[in-house]
Amino acid sequence: MTWEAWVALGALVLAGCALTIAALVLRRFSELRGSLADEAPAAPEPEAPAMPRLVAFVANPSKPAVADARAEILRASAELGIPTPLWLETTVEDPGVGQARDAVRRGADVVVAVGGDGTVRAVAEALVGTRVAMGIVPVGTGNLLARNLDLPLGDPTAALRIALEGADRPIDVGWLRVLNDGSVEDDVTAAAVRATPTKQASRDHIFLVIAGVGFDAAMIADTDDDLKARVGWIAYFVSGVRHLHGRRLRAVVRIDDAPPETLRLRSLLVGNCGRLPGGITLLPDALIDDGWLDVAAIDTRGGVAGWAQLFGEVVLQGVGVRTELPAKIGRIDHTRGRTVHARFSSSEQVQVDGDIIGRARDVETRVDEGALVVRVSPA
After folding, report:
1. What residues contact residue 161 under an 8 Å CB cut-off, 6+ apart?
2. CA dihedral sign, ordered 204, 240, 273, 150
3. Distance between CA 317 and CA 280 in Å, rounded?
């Protein structure tokens, strides 16, 4: 057997052990949580808002599920006493920001995003600071914010009822700005770049879940759209396999006013919350309404074995188990801050909530605390 085969076999064994331990820990955690829940007094339920007078739906017609869900949504709206909602469809030129702003101008009490994460981001961008509530009927691939808010997936009627009758919850939003897309020399300061902005530095990009530079963005950029339409979020993992042997990045990262640190890593993630499809939790300490951004520097060495150890780390931290073994070849280093500035040695792909916004060498992120109101289950 070749050494490559031995490494691959070892990696599979490591991953299998991690999954087994995680399953045992999760089962014990669930049992303990259930017993504590039985003993604890019931928490008061949030007060549900009054039924909205005008509801606007901002829908992405490119999603096949939207056409199927439209009749069901309009029928359920009528049954709930909202016979004439606004139905506004997104376009390639405007993915939902203009439609949501139009809905607010027309007096909508609730604006419901019907689509995937891109539609949710666009509607959220328009509603930030307005105090108009955003509902979500998730019909996309990742449905990242919906997962983190524990909204029902695959059931438009249940999601609609929460959007119309649920409780209002203020949450934080993150903003990412590209200071240098790679067209400016690295020794140009951020201040100079702002004075002569590149094409990517013209606006902030909202993110509600996670923004990332490096492996994660390259994986998303390389995902086949046809495969994603057929198998959903699993297509991202198929793409990820092709990038396992990619190069490590060098980055200088500064969080708030702390001294900058030089890092070697595969991905730099900045998140508002951390739950992903497949039961993966990348940022276990992230809270969507705590006024902080959680930062994860992900690195691996040792080829497939490093990625296997990293996968084990992710699985275990998702159930509350942290390992502090020395000299790990796959690791995630966590910290938090309100602003994060990162400069990379080369231009890299950048993603926000699974949408590629281009390439960058120099980015900054910030948190906007409690800036968006979302509808969640009152239970």
Report:
1. 76, 80
2. positive
3. 9
Q: Helix, strand, or coil here: 334? A: strand
What is the token pair recorded at 286?
Answer: 């992230």
Give the whole-angstrom CA distance, residue 354 versus residue 151. Answer: 19
Q: For residues 340 and 270, is the Cβ–Cβ distance under 8 A?
A: yes
Res 51: pLDDT: 65
Q: How close are the terminal C-alpha atoms of the chain, in Å?
A: 56
CA dist 171 and 206 (Å) reads: 13
Phi, psi of 191 (to 5 degrees): -65, -40
- CATH fold for the domain made of 55-165: Rossmann fold (3.40.50)
Which two three-digit tokens encode residue 102?
A: 């139009």
Name the residue type at position 377.
S
Cβ(177)–Cβ(204) below 8 Å:
yes
328 DSSP 8-state letter: -
pTM comes to: 0.80
The whole-angstrom separation of Cα 18 and Cα 314 is 9
How does DSSP assign 45-69, residue by residue?
A: PPPPPPPPS-EEEEE-TTSHHHHHH
| Rounded Cα distance, 111 and 168, in Å | 13
Low-confidence residues of the chain: pLDDT under 70: 1-52, 185-202, 228-229, 231-234, 236-243, 245, 302, 318-319, 323-327, 379
Closest CA to 100 of 66, 55, 61, 68: 55
Give the architecture (CATH level 2) of 173-374.
Sandwich (2.60)
* DSSP-based three-state secondary structure for 372: strand
State the amino acid at position 226 in one-letter form: D
Specify which residues 176 forms β-bridges with: 205, 365
Q: What is the pLDDT of residue 145?
A: 97
For the chain, give every domain's residue range: 55-165, 173-374
71's tokens: 């009749």
